[in-house]
Design a protein that fits this description.
two-stranded antiparallel sheet; elongated; mainly alpha; Rrf2 family transcriptional regulator; Arc Repressor Mutant, subunit A; DNA-binding transcription factor activity; WH-like_DNA-bd_sf
């Protein structure tokens, strides 16, 4: 999620389309992974792509209307927590009690996190980036691409 948000903000600062290869370099991954990831974002209308010379990915949405929860959904609603039960179907009653307690805690924490993601827009992230950039005293588009 963090990497995708990073890429979306880079795209918002770009003057035109950005290739999968360039986005892969920003994310530290392979262009195929970028295309696969961006497909979910494209399906929900967050980004668009063009093929051929001069093609690439562009932002296709109003940053002030798209929340981090929207991005989470576009990514296929991945599991929020990697922690899990030692055994999904334990026979031990102690482990059943532990699993029940952990399941409740994970569910509550996930609900809170997803609610908070719904409160933050891409526009708010972009504004935060620009405020940080202004405090640093940088100007010009060349710095936004390197410092974002």
């Amino acid at each position: 999620m963090s990497g995708v948000l990073h890429v979306l903000l880079h795209m918002a600062e770009a003057d035109g389309p950005i290739t999968s290869e360039r986005l892969a370099a920003v994310m530290g991954t392979n262009p195929v992974v970028v295309r696969r990831t961006m497909a979910g974002l494209r399906d929900l209308g967050l980004v668009a792509s063009g093929k051929g010379h001069g093609g690439g990915w562009v932002i296709a949405c109003d940053l002030d209307r798209v929340t981090l929860h929207d991005v989470y959904l576009a990514l296929g609603s991945p599991a929020v927590f990697a922690m899990g039960h030692r055994s999904e179907q334990p026979e031990c009653l102690v482990e059943q009690a532990v699993n029940a307690s952990l399941a409740n805690a994970f569910r509550d924490a996930e609900n809170l996190l997803l609610s908070r993601l719904g409160e933050v827009t891409l526009g708010r992230l972009s504004a935060d980036f620009h405020a940080r950039l202004a405090r640093r005293g940088l100007c010009g588009q060349e710095h936004t691409r390197d410092d974002a």
